Amino acid sequence: MGEKSKVTIYDLAQKLGTTASTVSRALQDNPRISLKTREAVKQLARELNYIPDPIAHHLRTGKGNVLGIVVPRIDRNFFATIISAFQAVAQKSGYQLIIAQSNENADEEAAAVRALVQKKVDGIAISLSVNSQNVDYPELCSAHNIPIVFFDRTPSDFQNYDTVTNDNFQIGYDAVLQLYKRGCRKIGHFSGPMTQRSYIDRYRGFRKALEDLHLDYHQEWIIPGITEATGYDAALRILQMNERPDGIFSAGDFSAITAMDTFMKKGLSIPRDIAIIGVANEPLDAYLATPLSSFNLHRHQIGEMTASILISRIKGDDDNQELEQPSHIIVKHELILRDSSI
Amino acid sequence: MGEKSKVTIYDLAQKLGTTASTVSRALQDNPRISLKTREAVKQLARELNYIPDPIAHHLRTGKGNVLGIVVPRIDRNFFATIISAFQAVAQKSGYQLIIAQSNENADEEAAAVRALVQKKVDGIAISLSVNSQNVDYPELCSAHNIPIVFFDRTPSDFQNYDTVTNDNFQIGYDAVLQLYKRGCRKIGHFSGPMTQRSYIDRYRGFRKALEDLHLDYHQEWIIPGITEATGYDAALRILQMNERPDGIFSAGDFSAITAMDTFMKKGLSIPRDIAIIGVANEPLDAYLATPLSSFNLHRHQIGEMTASILISRIKGDDDNQELEQPSHIIVKHELILRDSSI
DNA sequence: AATAATTTCACAAAAAGTTGCACAAAGATT
DNA sequence: AATCTTTGTGCAACTTTTTGTGAAATTATT
């Protein structure tokens, strides 16, 4: 039924010989309107295919049923999966989703958050870009009474805010433990940008495990700044070392994959010469030339938890907002063992 | 700095001893307001950190600077990349993006489109779910004066609407051609759902190439309904055939990858026994056990073109909307040759 | 039957901006 | 000096919905 569009409560009121206010209340099941009238209104609304105008509604009530989510990059599988899960939960609760990407850029990120605040979204979920550390988003948001939840990449003063993360310390620890179990004694690390807590924690877990296992720590075996595809360079550096590591914990899968590729092209055997464990469990890890051991971070859970915390903050907004403690959800990880470290 | 929030044009007007209308016009650089006044208004607006309320603006003008995009699944790399590119262009033109996913479900898709229309987005980009064919979105949208552009997955009567696609016929054709060049003479096909034009076209291109090259067409070698990970079953079926194909054009990478994996585990050699070419050029194709030949579909271009067509439709809305011919943008593809078909 | 209590609904204001029209002041023309 | 333009502002209406208040209609009480 392609209605002409534009059916307002005034149209309904006119046809019923009543007023807009009555129609509005009737549609809200306001007990001040008689049941008879309520039914008549709803009946007509259905017939005329009436849709309340969300813009006007938003203007009057200040609630728009829209959530905002900001990620470094939409096209990274990790974030796309989280968004997907987040969106599913949001949709179930009647929220639309506005997605913004920061392109790993602090300025674009700030602009995105501001735009969302300006748009008066009901809540914001955000994963910080690598070089955003001390951000003022929580203040900005709380000034406008908009709940904010951080996931995966959190600010340094994360204790004060709601967060959903993995136990990155334990991930680092577990990686070393597994490499140790298979016989590695000289373990190196491809580390992510040390501006981000998640990468710092992975590194610290790695260090702690070395310590607990009484393994040597070689500064040289820590190759920092692994972003996307710098695994190639890292591998070359390792090949030139006098004493090479025999196991590597890479803070990301992509660098692990390109490093493995390079090692193999240079004649090394994985995992015999060097064992490798990555993080993220990218979709095709299982089908690689050497299937890559990696940590499943249960992204779906991250997305779902983030959405449900955010929504519950929105709902319970009036009650006890200031009093509540921030929640810090830790989503469990799972080491998927494949040839690269067996 | 952190204003209390809520500064309206009325506040500005009051402080300046003028009225809201003058402030509104001054901020819009309306020439009917003297330069002096304009400057004074803008100056004060800056000082008070005034932000125009987009909701009120939208209510009055009907334009909200928001675009909607609907995809089957956000977490498929193909769509995520397109969204990413789309978003970049939209952002540059000052548009926010609302993203919805249909989960390959026609009902959810319809609900999403309706929600976007209701929210009065300025334009909609959509890639249909596999089983949406005859959809009424264009009518719905044009009734509400919202431009709509289809990308990748288009409706069957696509001629009437703006579309951005690849030349799927040619992709099918080129795949066969390449397999032929490397010596394959018994070429099979993993086909996608035949409800979608893109897959139909790939199949038709495949058929036409067989014909032009005077190759046999074996019904048995066409394995239909490849969605995500059914490559395993397809491979098993092929292994049981009396006469096996020696080359396969798979309409998607994932099925090609799992099929390759299965073949190899059963002792066949790729490409010696069977050569394979996929479609989509997934991120890790190059690092697979056997690197997979695949078609780069230039997703970034798809996203960018879709956004710019949509935006130009929005802008040129008043002028000649009905008169304009729909545009059908074809984004070029590129066969990336890797071991699986060399 | 008259007053009180309750129910039902209409009016108008409010949310924050935009815009057509009218009107005043200044400048130009005769 | 009187009339006509031009320029700059203000008033009020408009977008659609929600909601406080108060009036009318209905029912109950004595």
Could you explain the architecture of this structure?
2 copies of one chain form a homodimer. By secondary structure, chain A is α/β, with parallel strands linked by helices. Chain A folds into 3 domains: 9-52, no CATH class; 65-166 and 299-331, Response regulator (Rossmann fold); 168-297 and 336-341, Rossmann fold (3-Layer(aba) Sandwich), CATH 3.40.50.2300. The first copy, chain A, contains 13 helices and 12 strands. Chain A has helices spanning 9-16, 20-27, 35-47, 54-61, 77-92, 106-118, 137-143, 168-181, 197-212, 231-239, 253-265, 299-315, 317-320, and strands at residues 66-71, 96-101, 123-126, 148-151, 162-166, 187-190, 222-223, 247-250, 275-279, 293-296, 328-331, 334-336. In chain A, the strands form 2 sheets. Chain A has a 6-stranded parallel sheet with strand order 2-1-3-4-5-11, sandwiched between helices. In chain A, α5 (77-92) packs parallel to α12, α8 runs parallel beside α9 (197-212) and α10 (231-239) packs across α11. The longest helix of chain A is centred in the C-terminal third of the chain and has 17 residues, at 299-315. The radius of gyration of chain A is 26 Å and the shape is elongated. Chain A starts with 8 loop residues before the first helix and ends in a 6-residue tail after the last strand. Chain A binds a DNA duplex (30 and 30 nucleotides) through α2 and α4.
